[in-house]
Amino acid sequence: MATLFTRIINREIPANIVYENEKVLAFQDIHPQAPHHVLIIPKTEIATLNDLDASTAPLVGEMFLAAKEIARTLGVDQDGYRVVMNCNRDGGQTVFHIHLHLLAGRSMHWPPG
Ligand code: AMP
Predict the structure, then answer these.
(1) Closest Cα to residue 45, out of 101, 2, 92, 89?
(2) Residue of 30, 46, 88 best suited for mutating to test ligand 1, as the one with most atoms within 8 Å of CB
(3) Could you tell me the CATH superfamily of domain 4-104?
């Protein structure tokens, strides 16, 4: 069964796509938590960070490169932004296809909730 995010990759579910290359896709979060809230996903299904291994680890680098590029395109790279990945229940993960949240456009709090 394809994940929700694989269905977005396959264009079976609509999304506001902001970036795409051979390895990753990025689209606006449907419930934004900041003026800019983009999800960056690998085109390969990996359920959680716990499932990452040496063969798939380079994809995470691709995800961060995409985040950097999207932040620059949004014009928030100098003011700043936050990139976060949630893992499993206590991390707040609800979609089991790894993703980076790119949050920007307001001052972030620390510690996070
Ligand atoms: P997480 O809780 O870290 O697993 O993040 C999942 C994110 O996916 C949440 O921020 C949701 O708002 C977002 N989300 C769920 N369904 C969709 C969708 N169809 N399109 C865009 N974002 C979604």
Answers:
(1) 2
(2) 30
(3) HIT-like (3.30.428.10)
40 close to 100: Cβ distance less than 8 angstroms:
yes
Mean pLDDT value across the chain: 97
SS (H, E, C) the chain: CCCHHHHHHCCCCCCCEEEECCCEEEEECCCCCCCEEEEEEECCCCCCHHHCCCCCHHHHHHHHHHHHHHHHHHCCCCCCEEEECCCHHHHCCCCCCCCEEEEECCCCCCCCC
Q: How many CA atoms lie within 13 A of 97 on its CB side?
A: 19
What is this structure's pTM? 0.98
Measured in Å, residue 101 CA sits from the centre of ligand 1 at 9
pLDDT digits (tens, 9 = 90+) for 28-83: 999 999 999 999 999 999 999 999 999 999 999 999 999 999 999 999 999 999 99
